[in-house]
Amino acid sequence: MAHLRFRHGVHPPELKELTAGTPIRRMPFPEEIVLPLSQHTGKPATPIVRVGDRVERGDKIGEADGFISSPIHASAAGTVEAIDLWPHPTGSFQPAVRIKVEAFSAQAPRPRIIPDWEGLSREQLVEAVRQAGVVGLGGAAFPTHVKLQPPKDSPVDTILINGAECEPYLTTDHRTMVEYPERVHLGIRIMMKCLGVDRAMIGIEKNKPDAVARLQETLPSDIDVSVHPLTVKYPQGAEKMLIKALLDREVPSGGLPMQVGVVVHNVASVATIAEVFETGLPLIERIVTVTGLGIRQPSNLIVPVGTKTRDLIDACGGLMPDAREVVFGGPMMGTAVADLDAPVMKGTTGLVVLSEREVKPQQSYPCISCGHCVDACPVFLNPQILGQLALSERWEEMEQHHLLDCMLCGCCSYTCPSNIPLSQLFTMGKAGLQRAKAAA
Amino acid sequence: MTTPRFLITASPHLAERDTTPKIMWHVVLSLLPIVGASIYYFGPSAVLVILASLVGCLLTEWVFGKRETLLDGSAMITGLLLGLILPAGIPLWMAFVGGVFAIGFGKLIFGGLGQNIFNPALLGRAFLQAAFPVALTTWPVIRENWWQLRGDNLALPLMAAREVDVVTTATPLGLQKFEQTGTELWRLVIGATEGSLGETAGVLILVCGAYLALRNYLNWRIPASIFLTVGVLAGLLHLIDAVRYPDPWFMLFSGGLMIGAVYMATDMVTSPVTNLGCWLFGFGIGFLVVVIRLWGGLAEGVMYAILLMNALVPFINRATQPKVFGATKPEQAKGSA
Asked: What ipTM goes with this model?
C-alpha cells in the first residue's frame, strides 16, 4: 500500500494500554437515567412522554424533529420522573427526560418483530435505521440515516469504515472490532445495500493489530470489503484525513466527503446498525471506555445511554485521589465536565479521568514563532496568524485565513511550546464570525 | 462521595511536554560545551567577556522587562551568544554595553520575547561593531601562558586604550582576504584559530546543534540550507578560479558561519515559520555570506547576512503560506481518484 497516511499531525502518547486488553463488560443499571433531548447534531428531539408515564426499555420517548434529527429511546424500564433542564456534557443545562429505573425489573424490552433486513428495500432500511435513533458513535453524533441518503448528484462509490480511533486513551472502537467483528461486517453489508455501493474499506491504525487480524479472519468473500492498517498519527480518524490516507482523495475545502464519492461511518455505528437488525432494539446502549490515570479501574463498558457520570465512575471503582479533570470523549477533542450529573449520550466515546500528572500546565508564554503549529496542522492552516487575529477579535480576517477549514482537532494547541490555547481561540473565532454574520 | 475540585479547560487536554522555557534552557545547556571550548582556547578573557555580556543582558531584562521573564531563559541565551561572538580582547565595559543594547534595543523595545524582528545578540554585536570598530576587529595572538589576558579587557569606559604589550594577528578570513594566506583545515575544524570566542570550534558547534535539531528545538533546514548554499556557491567559484576564491571547506569552517548558521539564524523568533520559508531564508543567508566575504569590503559577512534576512522574514512568511487542504477544485479532486 503506497499512501496510507496524511501529511502533518501530531503523535500524542497513546496510553491505550490501560484498556486495550480489557474485555467489554456490562455495567449494572443505575437508579436513574437522564436522557437529554439533544444528543445529536441537528434539532433536539420532541418529548412524547409525560411525567408519571411508565416506559419499558427500548420505548421511544422523544420524536425526531425534522430531517437532521434523531428519535430518543428509553434505555431502561421505569417511570418518567421529570422533563426539565439538566446538566449537559457540553457544560450548559439542556432539556432532558429523567427516568426512575425500576429496581427489580427484568429490563426486558417489549416483544417486537425483528425484520429480516435482506427482505427490506433501501428506503425501508434507511427508515429502520432512522427509527432506531442511530447516530454516529464516533463523537459528533451526526444522524446516520442522513449519511445513508446522499443527494442524487453526488454518486458515492466507496464506504469507508473508520476504525482509526486516533484519540489517545480510547479503546471503544478497538474492543468493538476485536469482540464483534461479525457484527461489523454485517453492518457493512446493510450499509452497502442502503447506499447501493459495491466497495467498502476499513481503516484501522496499526497500533491495533488484533483488531486488524480479527476483521481479516472474518472477512466475507462475497462482497468487496478490505481492511487497511494505517499509520499511527493523530488525527488519522478525522474524515478528511482518513479519505486522504485510504483513497488519496482530497475533500474540497468547505465540502463534504460525498463530493469525492465517499461516505465515512464510524465502526461502532456500523456495529450498532447490525445490532438493530439482530435484536430489533434501538440505540439505547453503547460501549464507553472509562480510563485515565485518575480512575481506579479503567474499563470498557456497555453503558445504558443516559447513565450519569458519577454512576459510571462508581462502576469503575471510583476516582483516584489525584483525579483532576473529567473529560467526555477523547483528551484531544473532548469536553471537560464540571458536573458529575452530566449523562452519557449516544455520542460519548469515552470518559477520561486525567490525574494531576496528566493534565497540561496552565501557564502560557509569548509566541516565539517556532512554527510547530504550522507543521502540525493537518489541513495546512497557519495557526500562528489565526491565533494573533483571534486575540484582536478580527473574525473576518480569520475567515480569509480559512478559519472555517479548521476542524478543531487541537494539534496546534497540543504542540505549542508556549501553551497558547489556539484551538480554543478558533472555537471563539468561529462563534464570533457567526455573530458578526448574523449582525450583518 | 466527596467531590474533588475539577479542572475545566478547553480541549485538547493534553500537551506536549516541551515548553518555551524548557526549549530556551536546553539551548543554554547546549551552549555550555562551546563556552568551555572558548575558555580552553582564550583563557580567563573568555570567562570575563562572556560574564560581562551576560550581566548586561540579564540586568537589562530584569530592570526593564517583566520580572518573571528572566526565568524563561531567553536573556540568558542572548547573553551567552553575544559573549561568544565577541573577540577575546574586547574591554569588558563594551561587552556589557553590547548586552544592554542587545536586550534593550534588540528585544524589549519591540515588546519582549517573540516580538523582535532581529536576533538580539547579533544586533548587539552590530551596534558594537559600529561604535567600536577597532576593538571588534583586534585579534591578539594566542599566548603561551593560558592565564594571561588576551587584550585590554580591563580598560576603563571611554578612555583611550592603554598601550599594552599585545601582538595582534588576523582571523583566518582576514588572512585569506587581505594577505592571501590560507589556514589548515584541521585547525579550523577543531577551533585552534583566531576569531571570536565561540565561533572557532566548528565541529563542536555542529554537534551541539545536532542535539537541538534532534529534539526539534531548532529547524535543521536553516543550517542545512545555509551550508548547502555556501558550499555549492563557494565550490563553483573555487572551480572557476582556485587562486582568488578559497575552497568551500574553508568557507564553511571559517569565521562565524558555523555559530551563525546553527545558533543565530535558527533563532525561532526571527526565522520563518514555514519549512519552505526556512529553506529560502537559509539560501538567502548563504548567498549574502558568500557575496559579502568574497566581494565586499569586510572579511566576515555572516552577521549582516543574517540581520538582512531577519528583516525579510515577514515577507518570506507571507510568500510561503501553506496551501489549505482540499484547495483544489472538486472536479480535479475526483478526477485523480
From this structure: 0.86
Calpha distance A127→B204 (Å, rounded)? 71
Mean pLDDT on B302-331: 87
Inter-chain CB proximity A418 and B325 less than 8 Å: no
Give the cell for residue A153. Answer: 448528484
Give the pLDDT band of residue B331 (cuts 50, 70, 90): very low
Please identify which residue in the block is written with the cell numbers 489525584: A322
CA dist list (Å): B213 to A73, A107, B209, B218, B262: 56, 61, 6, 5, 9
- Alpha-carbon gap, residue B197 to B114, rounded angstroms: 27
Looking at the partner chain, which of A260, A414, A416 has a beta carbon nearest the beta carbon of B334?
A: A260
- A31, HSE (Cβ side, Cα atoms, 13 Å): 4
Distance, CA of B18 to CA of B31 (rounded, Å): 19
The Cα-based distances of A291 to A79, A306, A308, A404, B143 in angstroms read: 31, 19, 16, 32, 66
DSSP state of A10: B
Q: Do A253 and B14 touch (CB under 8 A)?
A: no
A88 — pLDDT class (breaks 50, 70, 90)? very high
Collect all residues of chain A within an 8 Å Cβ-Cβ radius of residue B72.
365
**Separation CA A400–CA A41 (nearest Å):** 26
A341: chain B residues, CB-CB within 8 Å: none
Q: Is-contact A143 A69, C-beta < 8 A?
A: yes
Write out pLDDT tens, residues B57-68: 999 999 987 767
What letters, b where the CB count within 10 A reaches 16 and e where it falls short, cover A8-35?
Answer: bbbebebbbebbbebebeebebbebbbb
Only one residue has cell 571559517, namely B254
Contact B13 A318 (CB under 8 A): no
Residue in A74, A22, A12 with CA at minimum distance from that of residue A47: A74
Q: β-pairing, A299-304 with A78-87?
A: unpaired
Residue B257 is given by DSSP the state: H
Chain A, chain B: beta-carbon pairs less than 8 Å apart: 191
Cell numbers found for residue B88: 577575546
pLDDT single digits (tens) A193-223: 999 999 999 999 999 999 999 999 999 989 9
Residue A65: CB atoms within 10 Å: 15
**Residue A301 host element (H or E):** strand A299-304
3-class secondary-structure state, position A50: coil
Q: Which residues of B touch A170 (CB under 8 A)?
A: none
pLDDT in tens, A287-339: 999 999 999 999 999 999 999 999 999 999 999 999 999 999 999 999 999 89
Mean pLDDT of chain A: 93
Would you give the DSSP letter of residue A74?
-
Q: Please list every residue in chain B whose beta carbon sits closer than 8 Å to the beta carbon of residue A402.
A: 324
Kindly report the pTM of this predicted structure.
0.90
How close does chain B come to A398, measured CA to CA in Å? 14
Nearest Cβ partner for A413 among B12, B72, B322:
B12
Q: Which of B22, B47, B53 is nearest to B35 (CA)?
A: B47
Residue of A258, A288, A90 lying closest to A175 (CA atoms): A288
Alpha-carbon distance values, B76 to A228, B17, B73 (Å): 50, 21, 5
